[in-house]
């Protein structure tokens, strides 16, 4: 993670994930591999917005990603109690 880019409370994150599914699924698809980048923008003391992009390097172990190279865009809204 890289802090202090635009604001001292914003966070840029980059990650890699590799999931080993159960044997039955692994035989068909192998391990699920993906990369992700996100930027967490602190809007107020208790609220933040976090856009992120996930790119799958292999097929997913679930049905949500069917082909290699699928990219998923997301947006999270957080509220701290």
How would you describe this structure to a colleague?
This protein has 81 residues and is mostly beta strands. It has one domain. It is 9% helix and 51% strand. The protein contains one helix and five strands; from the N terminus they run ββαβββ. The chain has one helix spanning 23-29, and strands at 2-3, 11-19, 32-42, 47-56, 71-79. The chain has a five-stranded antiparallel sheet, with no helix packed on it. β3 (32-42) and β4 (47-56) form a beta hairpin. The radius of gyration is 16 Å and the shape is elongated. The mean pLDDT is 80.
Key words describing this protein structure:
single chain; 81 residues; 51% strand; five-stranded antiparallel β-sheet; mainly beta; 1 helix
Write a compact overview of the structure shown:
This protein has 81 residues and is mainly β. Helices cover 9% and strands 51% of the residues.
Q: Could you tell me how far the N terminus lies from the C terminus, measured between alpha carbons in angstroms? A: 24 Å
Mean pLDDT: 80
Spans of at least 5 consecutive residues with low confidence: none
- Read across the widest sheet, the strand sequence of neighbours is 1-2-3-4-5
Structural classification: mainly beta
Query: In percent terms, what proportion of residues is strand?
Result: over 45%
Q: With helices defined by DSSP (H or I, 4 residues minimum), what is the helix count?
A: 1
């Amino acid at each position: 993670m890289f802090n202090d880019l635009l604001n001292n409370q914003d966070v840029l994150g980059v990650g890699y994930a590799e999931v080993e599914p159960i044997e039955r699924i692994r035989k068909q698809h192998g391990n699920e591999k993906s990369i992700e980048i996100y930027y967490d923008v602190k809007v107020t003391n208790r609220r933040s917005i976090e856009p992120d992009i996930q790119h799958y390097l292999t097929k997913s172990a679930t049905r949500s990603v069917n082909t290699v190279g699928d990219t998923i865009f997301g947006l999270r809204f957080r509220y701290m109690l």
